[in-house]
Amino acid sequence: MGKIYAILSKKGGVGKTTVVINLGAAFAERGQKVLLVDVDPQNSLYLGIGLYKERIDRGSFDILLKNVKPEEVIRETPYRNIEVIPSGPVTPYLEWRISSVSKNLDRLKNWLDYTGVKDRYDYILIDTPPTFNSITGSAVVASDAVMITVQSEPLAYRTLPAVFVFLRDIKEKLKPSLRVLGIIINMYDGREELMVQTARVLEEKYKNIPFKTRIPKDLNIAEALAYGKPVIFHEPGSAGARAFRLLAKEIKARETVLEQVIKR
Ligand SMILES: Nc1ncnc2c1ncn2[C@@H]1O[C@H](COP(=O)(O)OP(=O)(O)OP(=O)(O)O)[C@@H](O)[C@H]1O
Ligand SMILES: [Mg+2]
């Protein structure tokens, strides 16, 4: 059965979409079957995974509002082992309708379960908007665990408590099994003293939640995204590509620990 992880942040532009695409590619490179799901109304994930020439007429927003079959929304990508569900053509009215229908929080979860989509993949990674509304709530409810993306700078770091409050509320009220798999520090530059210090504070405050692997600020990552390619396929030897491979490995190791804890 596939593992479902939502990637969250309270702040925009910290690299959620980048992480979903590149972590997905790192799992795919290890031979795992991956589905990337976009629930961000910006609908930009499909561009970053190379489908910029495609006409997108359906997507995850249809799942949240009506009954659709998997084959109507799941798209192949140019990359082996990676498929995607875009969010679809999202109008402001549609976005408003979805984010105001809070009783539908388990729709995405049920769809992934009942259609059997969950069983077809090793990993389902969900890209979310930088707001905590019922769209993001649906993504969290559908997930086994979440990962939080931050930049190593004080302003970004101050948004973390709000993320944990949001997750605690969902865990208490809707999804007792919810876990935080880890915090991903993105756009890290070890030459910038402020970043080094902030990362240290983060590790002191959140103990072992931040992953040891930090994703470096690497122009190859931004360039690859603009070309619609994961950095692993664009520049396989780059620092960015190496970091995403290491992060995938670290996630696997954490999953093993979690499973052992559960078995005990
Ligand atoms: N490690 C990195 N090194 C260099 N550039 C990066 C890195 N991570 C992300 N970027 C760039 O930063 C920008 C924002 O990244 P991205 O779109 O993934 O953020 P996001 O959190 O999904 O944003 P939003 O909240 O708007 O959805 C992009 O142009 C991306 O290419
Ligand atoms: Mg994004």
Kindly describe this structure:
With 264 residues, the protein is an alpha/beta fold. It has one domain (3-263): 3-Layer(aba) Sandwich (Rossmann fold), CATH 3.40.50.300. 48% of the residues lie in helices and 14% in strands. The protein has 14 helices and seven strands. It has a seven-stranded mixed beta sheet with strand order 3-4-2-5-1-6-7, with helices on both faces. A hairpin with a 5-residue loop joins strand 3 and strand 4 (82-85). Helix 1 packs across helix 14 (239-263) and helix 6 packs parallel to helix 8. It is globular, with a radius of gyration of 17 Å. The two termini are 21 Å apart. The mean pLDDT is 93. The structure holds adenosine-5'-triphosphate (ATP) and magnesium ion.
Helicity, as a percent range = 40-55%
CATH architecture: 3-Layer(aba) Sandwich
Rg (CA only): 17 Å
Spans with pLDDT under 50 lasting ≥5 residues? none
* Widest sheet: strand ordering: 3-4-2-5-1-6-7
Can you give the mean pLDDT?
Answer: 93
Largest β sheet strand count, sense and barrel closure = 7 strands, mixed
Instruction: List bound small molecules.
Output: adenosine-5'-triphosphate, magnesium ion
CATH topology: Rossmann fold
Structural class: alpha/beta
Q: Give the CA-CA distance, first to last residue.
A: 21 Å
Number of strands: 7
Q: What's the domain count?
A: 1
- Output the helix-strand order: EHEHHHEEHHHEHEHHEHHHH
**Please, how many helices?**
14
What is the H level of CATH, i.e. the homologous superfamily? P-loop containing nucleotide triphosphate hydrolases
Q: What proportion of the residues form beta strands (DSSP E)?
A: 5-15%
| Rough outline | globular
The CATH class is Alpha Beta
